[in-house]
Amino acid sequence: MSGLRIVALGGGHGLAAALRAARLVSDDVVGIVSVADDGGSSGRLRAELDVPALGDIRRCLSAVAADDGLLARSLEHRFDQGALYGHPIGNLLLAGLTVASGDLEAAVAEVARLVGAEGRILPATSSPVTLVADSDNGTLLGQVTIEDATQIRNLRFNPSRPPASAAAIEAIESADLVVIGPGSLFTSVLACAVVPGLTDAIAATSARRVFVSNIATDRAEARDFDLAAHVGALLDHGVRVDVVLAPLGSGAVDGRAGGIPVVEAALAADDGWHHDPKRLADALELVRS
Fold this sequence. Notes:
Blueprint: E1 2-10, H1 12-25, E2 26-33, H2 40-49, H3 55-64, H4 70-74, H5 89-101, H6 104-114, E3 120-123, E4 130-135, E5 138-141, H7 143-147, E6 153-158, H8 166-173, E7 177-180, H9 185-193, H10 196-204, E8 208-212, H11 227-236, E9 243-247, E10 256-257, E11 260-265, H12 277-287
Parallel strand pairs: 1-2, 1-7, 2-3, 7-8, 8-9, 9-11
Antiparallel strand pairs: 4-5, 4-6, 10-11
Helix pairs in contact: 1-3, 1-12, 2-5, 5-6, 8-10
């Protein structure tokens, strides 16, 4: 296992896949996670307890947890009846520790300790935030609304400048490899990377900055976006990258997308939809320098 310091940013299933891949490459892995979700269990807990969204953090803790142990195996278990219907155990545990301590980062660190996490998980910001974006149909508020929309631009937050995690900024500054994506373009990838302090840290880091594109587009928010449009959206929001890692047949023109070099590799899992952690790990090794 190398001493490569890897930081991965994003949210949801995409960031979890990147973290699983990073663990195969390095024993120094940090995940920085969007806390902007306002749907499902996360949305209910936000409304009831005024905590940031916890679902993406839970998924990432599961991705870096040790394979053994009852708690690690139970983070994703959802209650299927009663007042707790739809809530995963991990969300409730994170919410309880956050409310009790008043410190989201401390709550995440404690759950990481309990599940034997092999890597650190940090929220992009510890403040509850609402995503805001513009579209041809006007201003959009909230992740659930944005992920069902099209022609999205100018993603931002309310409040407008949420404080970035100091630990996350430090991790980016000291990284060797910064991995952005995969995941839903606006509501996962940019929802993390456009937190103002994180955008600045990504721009200033000496690390190799890699954008991992999706295997397929599954949400309306990036419908009809080709690879160049994905890269263009990153650049339009001030998110700087050095290389794009894309699946075979990505549509890159002359080995570039949005002016950024593209490296194509076999990344897809057997289902043809998700990233295979081992294949993604091999590809990250390929583009690390």
